[in-house]
Write a structure and sequence with these properties.
Helix content is 76%, strand content 0%. With 408 residues, it is mainly alpha-helical. It is globular, with a radius of gyration of 20 Å.
Length: 408
């Protein structure tokens, strides 16, 4: 979601319905399903952060502050947070593939319209609408894989889907910066919109028909009661806030990063700044290792380790040197993914009932944390420079440490 464990808002993996065909590794249908979901994951997370690497250029052309420009990111993540639960419910009635198709195509078409918008208010409104559309994929992709893929292959299938998320999130910043260096930010948005639409076409052409989906009526009252119960569960509530606080740090650092690197004493061009987002790949590696660490040393220890590493990384970025900033970003990324993986997995294991809704609530609050972190850090940077961003991040990790004192 980052950008790499999104999809947590979808129902928890369950076995395909007994007696029906399953997509097994090695079969053509399985390869088609993985290709489709990978392509959709790239499209969704490419569009989600499509403006993050371009914020300094957007600020300059539209003559707006960093905080105002950051709304082009936070409006989208906030809209996803709001739309996740409703779209998850709609997929139960109208089908996984139908909702995912509508999601990825609608978001891609909006992405193609963005380069032509000149008013900030209209731009932010379109980005919010795009966020609503994007919510349809993470809300249903994991449910589709859990229902259609052979139980023994579900984990690996979801891992490949999440890899698409990671690559999409990273590519949106990297490609945008590269194109903007040789053209401008509007052309970058157009290029990314075309890439997303191509991914949407690949998804539609390759996704296998859902053989195990069974439509059920939407019962808003039942969903509301389940969600209310989760929000009254003290343990789940702590886990929700922990995920959000880790995301505040990650969103803060990477939202404001472009402003710092494009200003003195660095003055780096857009293409070089975009390359800094390749550090996201560190998160992919971390996500695969942290489970073993938690099994050996315990979840709370892993959480504190994540907080310590993220905090250390933020402090290291204070040094005005490219090497120090890269080192700090690597530490922040490792710390964030450590906390996110532990918090999100703990939600699933501690929710006695309604695990799908429990995970959806986690992802909703997680994206709210992203929105708050980006906008708050942009305001802090505008008023106090990078020091303001550091204060926001350290305060978030301090609050997370207090929350984690209780049993996780």
């Amino acid at each position: 979601m980052v950008d790499t464990t999104t999809g947590a808002g979808a129902p928890s993996p369950v076995s395909a319905t007994a007696g029906t065909a399953e997509l097994a590794p090695g079969t053509r249908a399985y390869r088609r399903a993985i290709t489709a979901l990978f392509a959709a994951g790239v499209a969704v997370f490419l569009l989600l952060y499509v403006t993050q690497g371009l914020l300094p250029e957007i600020s300059d052309e539209l003559r707006i502050t960093p905080a105002e420009a950051s709304l082009t990111v936070s409006a989208t993540t906030a809209a996803i947070a709001i739309a996740l639960l409703p779209l998850s419910a709609l997929s139960e009635k109208y089908g996984r593939t139908r909702v995912m198709t509508a999601s990825v195509f609608t978001a891609s078409v909006i992405g193609l319209a963005l380069p032509f918008v000149t008013d900030l208010g209209a731009f932010v409104a379109l980005r919010a609408l795009q966020g609503v559309a994007l919510a349809g994929l993470p809300a249903t992709a994991m449910a589709y894989l859990a229902e259609e893929v052979s139980p023994k292959a579900v984990s690996s299938a979801i891992g490949l889907y999440l890899a698409g998320n990671s690559i999409g999130g990273m590519s949106s910043r990297f490609v945008a910066g590269l194109v903007a260096q040789w053209s401008d930010w509007r052309v970058s948005l157009g290029v990314l919109g075309v890439i997303a639409l191509c991914c949407a076409v690949v998804f539609r052409l390759t996704v296998p028909r859902a053989a195990n989906f069974r439509s059920v009526p939407v019962n808003p009252g039942a969903v509301a009661r389940t969600v209310s119960g989760h929000l009254r569960n003290p343990l789940l509530l702590r886990l929700y806030f922990l995920g959000a606080l880790f995301m505040v740090v990650f969103g803060a650092v990477f939202t404001v990063l472009g402003y710092r690197l494009s200003a003195a004493p660095f003055g780096l061009p857009e293409g070089v700044i975009g390359a800094f987002f390749l550090i996201y790949l560190v998160g992919t590696v971390t996500s695969t290792c942290i489970g073993r660490f938690a099994e050996r040393f315990g979840r709370r220890t892993a959480l504190y380790a994540g907080m310590a590493v993220a905090s250390a990384g933020v402090v290291v970025t204070v040094v005005n040197g490219v090497v120090a900033i890269v080192a700090g970003l690597v530490l922040v990324t490792v710390g964030f993914f450590t906390g996110h993986v532990i918090a999100s997995s703990s939600v699933s294991s501690n929710a006695a009932t309604g695990r799908a809704q429990a995970s959806a609530v986690y992802l909703t609050i997680y994206y709210i944390g992203n929105s708050i972190g980006g906008t708050l850090a942009a305001s802090a940077y505008h008023g106090a420079g990078w020091t303001g961003v550091v204060v926001v991040c350290l305060a978030s990790m301090g609050l997370a440490a207090l929350i984690a004192v209780r049993r996780i």
